[in-house]
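Both lines are given unchanged directly below:

***
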Amino acid sequence: MRYRAPPPEALLTADLDAFAAVFHRPSGITHLLASPAREILAALVDAPLDLDGVLAALSDRFDIADASRAALAARLDELVGVGLVEAA
């Protein structure tokens, strides 16, 4: 399964200290995101990725030596559930 973020123009983001307010223009819903959801969305901006690709992209950008595939899969499922990420 590959995951894809909406195109950048579909999201309006404002940083709020440890959170980000993300307005999803197509749905009209604003989401408050904390880490790692913000970073996952950023990793998916350039191209769709599978679970291992997302994990590799996050590992390249951040020190996550103890990353869990299961935890990442759960976060991706949450983002899919709220409509911020598409799974195909």
